[in-house]
Amino acid sequence: MVWKKAAVIMIGMTLLMIPVYSGNQVEAFSNQVIQQGATGDDVIELQSRLQYLGFYNGEIDGVFGWGTYWALRNFQYEFGMEIDGLAGPEVKNKLVKASNFDEGFVKEQIRQGNKFTHYGGTPKSQQTKKPAGNDSNGNQAPEQSKPKKTEQTAVNVPSGYSQNDIQLMANAVYGEARGEPYVGQVAVASVILNRVESASFPNSVSGVIFEPRAFTAVSDGQIWLEPNDTAKEAVLDAINGWDPSGEAMYYFNPNTATSSWIWSRPQIKQIGKHIFCK
Questions:
Q1: Residue 157 pLDDT more than 60?
Q2: pTM of the entire structure?
Q3: Which residues contact 273 (CB under 8 A, 6 or more apart)?
Q4: I want to staple 95 with a disulfide (CB 3.0 to 4.6 A). Which of 49, 80, 177, 223 is the partner?
């Protein structure tokens, strides 16, 4: 009997030594809050999971920059969480439940210098592309003579706006207003610029476009459609001073708008299907 009692006691002590985890445990990441400016493995996992879900289309490089920041904020918005651009325990748990992360695969692609066309959702062989000049085994191909590149510069682009700004605005215009008359597309671009110049909005193109709930194209993903030349020309016309919106700060489609607030804004004019207002 003595040995039986001893065995029971030992089993009980063993059970007490097994750690008990709370329901908030994160099964991935470290225990650190991930925020803008962070670097390392946590950011690689964050970018990979956001890209897996379609919120991040930038490079998976382990650097928490603006692209990662706005992707995270959009993820928080779509999943009904506090929108603060910080990846704490709640955000990490939600990401882990909603996505998959193959750490070995991702880090091997980074080590080889391969670029992700999109992580997740397709066969792994289709998720990355090798750097230009590498053969099928990842080796550097023999260098061949290449035609000399001529330096390209933007035409009629005032200082203060980068090519990235122009590209992002073209994406927004195309996502928001393709099918609208050309003047209406210029007007949408003008609204973005008017907000950049206003103290009531972020003071950058990316900040205005990715402000939560600001543009439908961001919420439904159409911001990432490839813009056509018309959208790009509309952006350049707006940057060069044409504002057919009448200095509007907002616009909406009266056939689909359900917000009583947007209907309360002083209206300036209607162009195509959009009403522009102050």
A1: no
A2: 0.47
A3: 180, 184, 253, 254, 255
A4: 49
